[in-house]
Structure formats: structure tokens, C-alpha cells
Amino acid sequence: MFDPSVIITLFLASAVVAVVPGPNVSLIVANALRKGTAAGLANVAGTQIGVLTMIGVLALGLEAVVSFMGEAFVYLKLAGAAYLVYLGYKLLRSDGVIETSAGSNRSLTGYMVQGFLVLWSNPKALLFFGAFIPPFVNPAYDASLQVMVYGGVFLVTATVLDSGYAILAGRAGRLLSRQRVRIAEKIGGSVLIAGGLGLALTRR
């Protein structure tokens, strides 16, 4: 059921998606820079709780989708592969800017809730997981189980990398220079495009 090559591709794609600054990473960095590492890590916890709930929603609904789609499932895989290439292209054209607007003083629980709400307030997040994870699923096996496992791979990867952002921003914010972010974007964009092309060529 779980092809090692698929797991590796998913891990690499997850790492790229998680490491490149987005709305939640911007929040984590901003709060860690201004309020310390603990605030950033609390944001990380809230964000990953949000990710876990989104994965749960996807797992509950995907089995029904697979049963109706049948052979058309391959087109979903191709669409997901195209989406990865699109994300890679956007990263290659990015300028390395990280927004640094943060909220007011709050407790660590407040920062956790903030991370959760920021993730769920972005309607593109659920659509992202709906496009990102299903292409890795083999319709011949239990779709819900695969979504939970693949979602877990993304969750662990994102938690480690987002925590790295929080620690770096809290202890040595100057390391997150625009130039370094730009390098990460170029590498990340190239890996995403390669992963998307590889996924499109994978036969199930």
C-alpha cells in the first residue's frame, strides 16, 4: 500500500511547502521575533492542530470520492502534479520577502489559538490539502488510512521545519535574511517542479 518512492516524494514536497514562508510562517516568525521563541512555538502548535483537523476532514470524505471517481482518479493525480509544478513556478518567481506584522500581547494559549485561526481563516488551506494529498493515494487501497498516514508525514515535517523557523527567529532573527529566504525559494521551487513531474510519471 505504501510505496517508499511515494513516501520520499511526499516528504520532499512537504518539506518544500513547509519551509517556504507563507501566511502561517510569517505569523510564526513575526511573533518569535517580537515576543520570543515560545510565542512562535505556540503558533506552530496551533497551526499543526489546524492541519490535523483538515487532514481528518479530508480522510473522512476521500473514500466516497474515490468510490465515485474510479478510473478518473488518475486525472486527480495529474491535477495534483500540475499543482506542485505551479507552486514551484511561483516560488521561482518569489522575491524572498517575509511579512513581519504580529499581533498584540497574549498568553501562549492565545498564540496557539491564533495559529489555529490563521490557518482555518485561509480557505485556500483546505483546498491545498485537498489537492496536495490525494494524488499520492492509491485508489486500490483504503483511501482514508492513506490520507491519515500521508497527512501524518506532512504534519511531522511541517512541525519540525516550522519549529526551526520559530527557534531561529527567536534566537537569531538576522539569520532569516531576504537573501537566504530567496535561496530557499529557488531550491524549493526546483524541488517542487521535479516532484510534480515525477508524480505525473508515476504509475499505479
Calculate Rg over CA atoms: 17 Å
> How many E strands?
0
- Could you give the distance between the termini? 10 Å
The secondary structure category is mainly alpha
Topology as a string of helices (H) and strands (E): HHHHHHHH
What helical percentage do the residues reach? over 70%
Spans of at least 5 consecutive residues with low confidence = none
Shape: globular
Keywords:
mainly alpha, 204 residues, globular
Outline of the structure:
This protein is an all-alpha fold and 204 residues long. The protein has helices spanning 4-19, 23-35, 37-69, 73-92, 108-120, 123-132, 143-172, 178-201. α2 runs antiparallel to α3, α3 packs antiparallel against α7 (143-172) and α4 (73-92) runs antiparallel to α8.
